Amino acid sequence: MSTSRIEAFSDGVFAIAITLLVLEIKPPTHSTDLWHDLGRLWPSYVGFLVSFFTIGVIWVNHHRQFELFVRADRTLMFLNLLLLFWVAFIPFPTSVVAEYFREGTQKDVASAVYAGTFLAMGLSFFSMWVHAGRAGLLGEVTPEQLRRLTLRNMLGQVGYAIAVALAFVSPPASLALCGAIALYYVHPGRSEAG
Amino acid sequence: MSTSRIEAFSDGVFAIAITLLVLEIKPPTHSTDLWHDLGRLWPSYVGFLVSFFTIGVIWVNHHRQFELFVRADRTLMFLNLLLLFWVAFIPFPTSVVAEYFREGTQKDVASAVYAGTFLAMGLSFFSMWVHAGRAGLLGEVTPEQLRRLTLRNMLGQVGYAIAVALAFVSPPASLALCGAIALYYVHPGRSEAG
Amino acid sequence: MSTSRIEAFSDGVFAIAITLLVLEIKPPTHSTDLWHDLGRLWPSYVGFLVSFFTIGVIWVNHHRQFELFVRADRTLMFLNLLLLFWVAFIPFPTSVVAEYFREGTQKDVASAVYAGTFLAMGLSFFSMWVHAGRAGLLGEVTPEQLRRLTLRNMLGQVGYAIAVALAFVSPPASLALCGAIALYYVHPGRSEAG
Amino acid sequence: MSTSRIEAFSDGVFAIAITLLVLEIKPPTHSTDLWHDLGRLWPSYVGFLVSFFTIGVIWVNHHRQFELFVRADRTLMFLNLLLLFWVAFIPFPTSVVAEYFREGTQKDVASAVYAGTFLAMGLSFFSMWVHAGRAGLLGEVTPEQLRRLTLRNMLGQVGYAIAVALAFVSPPASLALCGAIALYYVHPGRSEAG
């Protein structure tokens, strides 16, 4: 299968998952103070924001990764499907985290599940990269570039693993770290400039 | 990243957000007078109509804007992601406005949030345009064309800002203004003819 | 705007609307006789079936229509947006018709609204065709072909108008007619062979 | 109609159906032991997993099938629409199976409906293949390849038919068989190597 069709299908899943997130935000009903009640939904907005930009950043980096691939094999295709599985799953932990930050209880479990989903997604992404390197699917990449990109890929996973642990110390800090990792990947990194 | 892939991804988000809007309209249950009860849902229909054509118009103008871009940089890509964030968010304020026009209360807050979302979306759109002008991403655009298109872009934001304020005077007028802005952008404008 | 990008965006809306239909079918909860309770959902299955194939057929004919267009103008683009508005709306009357056939009441109103939505969609489709003919957007079409295709287009609208009226006599017959119109359009028609 | 546009539309439906599956997983509310209550949702996760990879595998094989087609006719287009009908329907039996495995009752009916949907989907897929062979839509395929691919296609249907029957003996075994069939199709098969 050509990499372009895998990319098109993946883009579809990214675009749908990123847009479905909003369905988890339910308008308050019978409100007598709508500013206040909309304000109380802040965990939903934060969850929407972090999940939206995380999926957005994964989409950008997915594309950059595929630009380096000269061909695809069946393993790559199914590792990619595994990545999409986690991307498509994101709306669920997003609504869990929104629900329990609003309820003000069980925030540690909710945040751990949230960060854990990002970790699983990141590991799928990383395994695609490792497989591509081993199976010779990469085109013109110098060993130095490969080392840098691999390091850059790994850093996010380390960050998400810390976010999972941090959830049991400070749930808001765990969420903030997930947001910070998305911001980190916004920055192109040295490998692009070099 | 090529502008064409950003466009394809954006088109996906536009198409999904525009189609998800319908999920906010819930059929009345156990109705004994279905004409009447369907009629009572008119705020949902109006919200669907205004949001649908606003996203539709943004889609058309997004495409026209990207036709002028000769290349994309990372800032453009993330400003575009910010635009899509607001587009994907639209179903939420649409259901808020439908809910509170139906309840007949808190219509000012609901309309202000609705128009405010369009304003945020418009400002993201406008910031993409300003960034593209400064970063030299535009191709063959004369200074006169640039001035006209910038003015045209700004007019919508002024309109949405007025709609936010108007929500506290007359919520229906605020909604009507949002609809009128969509109609304004249907018209191609002088820049296209010139 | 090129017709190909309008087509791609329209395909997105068709594909999403056709897939969202399933969300209106809710599994029975706490059932002690699941075969029976799944069976009671038959109006949802019929609605899903008729709406699915109606959108599917509109998609096929939309493509055939666009193959004849040599260019698009702004009016065409917005008539197309109007068509998509009705396509995106279809999940709502589908769930209304399913709800009231299940409740066994108000079936006439529900069927009339259902067929009425298809009529509105058909008229949007037809107006695109008329506009394209008048504005010279059609390529190599003989007057004879044009006459046939126009007639064929019109027949569906007549059928849907009859289905709206029929809803007040026999709601199931109205639904059956909507299904039959979809089947009629499956057949390519003489214009394609000639 | 060109096969490429049918493929693009189909990819859209696959991508949307695969991503909508997550909407059926509802976060537990007011939980005092969130780990436990998230754990109780395991049938939803299993359903999501099996349905996700089944749709994913169908997507991969759909693409491989279309690569062999040199042209499409109207019958193929509507058999493909029938396939998409079943694909779009999958989120419904997925939520039925999740609901009744969670409730711990009526699991046989739920599993039979689930496997039955996959069987219907598989038969649509198989009928496309048979039609393509008879109508001469296949390009360079040797009789030996044709025989192998037909056999491979049929095996899945036999598997799903067994899974329907197995549902009345052991619902979990029926589900496991559905998962195993997806895994079977992950493997490329001899026809690709040969």
Please tag this protein with its features.
78% helix, mainly alpha, 194 residues, 0% strand
Q: What does this entry look like structurally?
A:
4 copies of one chain form a homotetramer. With 194 residues, chain A is mostly helical. Chain A is built from 9 helices and no strands. In chain A, helix 3 (42-68) runs antiparallel to helix 5, helix 5 (91-103) runs antiparallel to helix 6 and helix 6 runs parallel beside helix 8 (171-186). The radius of gyration of chain A is 18 Å and the shape is elongated. The first copy, chain A, starts with a helix and ends with a helix. In chain A, 50% of the residues are buried. The model of chain A is unreliable at 190-194 (pLDDT under 50). Chains in contact: A-B, A-D, B-C, C-D.
